[in-house]
Design goal:
Elements (H helix, E strand, L loop, with lengths): L2 E5 L6 H5 L11 H4 L6 E9 L5 E10 L8 H8 L7 E5 L3 E2 L4 H21 L4 E6 L8 H9 L3 E11 L4 H7 L2 H12 L3 E4 L3 H17 L11 H10 L2 E8 L2 E11 L2 E9 L8 H15 L4 E8 L9 H6 L4 E11 L2 H22 L6 H7 L1
Parallel strand pairs: 4-6, 11-12
Antiparallel strand pairs: 1-2, 2-3, 3-4, 3-5, 6-13, 7-12, 7-13, 8-9, 9-10, 10-11
Length: 372
């Protein structure tokens, strides 16, 4: 029989447990989940067996605002309706410490019960999760357990490069066009480097602010996460890469890594050039770094499977890096239907506003596919 406990702080064994399992990852680590922000906070679920040993874990982020980046006027309005927007989300979990099918299903059921307790305790409008693509034992019965507990399940995919292959094979797996873009970037004199100082990390964050503005988003304090990101860099769970052209910073890339798995967060760009190849060269540089660092997998990140054949989506672009396709799932459970409808309306309103604001600065289609 399994029981659960729910904490708002992870104990010293949280990360140590994760690295004992092949599916343990950065998004379930205390390094990622712990935050001093007023807009969100973590919840840590432990599943315990009869001897008190940890049989499963899940880290959830409780978010109290509709959007994390927006104009000051929108933020002020959204603070007044926090009760309509408070929600929970988890990424790449849960982590289950058993290979025995029946045990795994029992542990997962207890995790779902614990999630329901979290929803009630924090009065969440909805809870959303992304099941880990690294857990090779996830099967239809695991997914059906979410369905039986009133979750809506949708198919997602991600692409991952096997870093145990020779680097020459990894290069050949990349599409011909993307290999050409990497070589063109080098001919244009674009160079890349890893950040090594806090001032270089500040450069990345200022570039992130510039990039966000092209998307209609406003980051009022670009250094709000500086201490956390710098600590993650020092602790060896995050890397930041910068690309320069003629000594001018044009692109940046954030990569997390944990338990042998590297994960691409996003490329940011100043879009100072009509067509920029900084992001493409950064991605290849990060792959080589991950290979040399002895990591096992490079996750290019993914998205809804329905976008796989749509050439206008980032998912289609990520496919060009030649990684193997891994299936995983998005699950969502609505706790308050009326509040959820209102949340979706507000989210759509803010997104429309951002789309309008970004039109004048939006990169061209070719630029987007090359540099994001």
């Amino acid at each position: 029989m399994y029981t659960f406990k729910i904490e708002t702080r992870a104990d010293s064994d949280w990360n140590q447990n994760l690295i004992k399992n092949n599916s343990g990852n950065f998004f379930q680590s205390s390094d990622y989940l712990t935050s001093d922000s007023k807009n969100f906070f973590p919840v840590f679920i432990y599943i315990l067996d009869e001897s008190g040993n940890v049989a499963g874990q899940l880290g959830i982020t409780i978010i109290k605002t509709a959007v994390l980046y927006s104009s000051s006027s929108f933020k002020t309005m959204l603070k007044l309706i926090t009760n309509f927007t408070t929600r929970g989300i988890w990424l790449y979990g849960p982590i289950i410490y058993s290979d025995v099918k029946n045990e795994r299903l029992e542990i997962l059921q207890q995790i779902i019960v614990a999630i329901n307790t979290v929803c009630q305790k924090y009065d969440l409008v909805f809870i959303e999760g992304f099941i880990s693509p690294y857990d090779k034992l996830i099967d239809e019965e695991h997914v059906q357990l979410f369905t039986k507990n009133h979750y809506v399940v949708s198919d997602h995919v991600t692409f991952m490069a096997d870093l145990t292959k020779p680097i020459e094979q990894i290069w050949q797996d990349v599409s011909k066009k993307t290999r050409g873009d990497v070589n063109r970037a080098k001919r244009r004199g674009i160079v890349t480097k890893e950040t090594q100082t806090i001032d270089e990390l500040k450069e990345f964050l200022l570039l992130h602010k510039t990039w966000a503005r092209t998307k209609g988003l406003e980051i009022s304090d670009p250094f709000q996460d500086l201490e956390k990101l710098w600590n993650n860099y020092k602790f060896g769970v995050e890397k930041f890469f910068l690309a320069y052209q003629q000594d001018k910073l044009i692109s940046g890339l954030r990569v997390s890594y944990f338990n042998g798995i590297a994960y691409t967060h996003f490329v940011v760009s100043s879009y100072s050039e009509s067509t920029s190849l900084g992001g493409t060269l950064l991605t290849w540089s990060a792959i080589k770094w991950a290979k040399n660092a002895g990591l096992k997998l490079y996750d290019f990140s993914g998205g809804p499977k329905s976008n796989l054949q749509n050439q206008d989506t980032l998912l289609f672009y990520k496919k060009k890096w030649g990684g193997d396709e891994y299936a995983h799932y998005n699950v969502i459970k609505i706790q308050k239907k009326f509040h959820y409808i209102l949340y979706r309306f507000l989210f759509g309103l803010v997104r429309s506003y951002h789309d309008f604001k970004s039109k004048s600065a939006k990169p061209s289609k070719n630029e987007k596919h090359e540099d994001e």
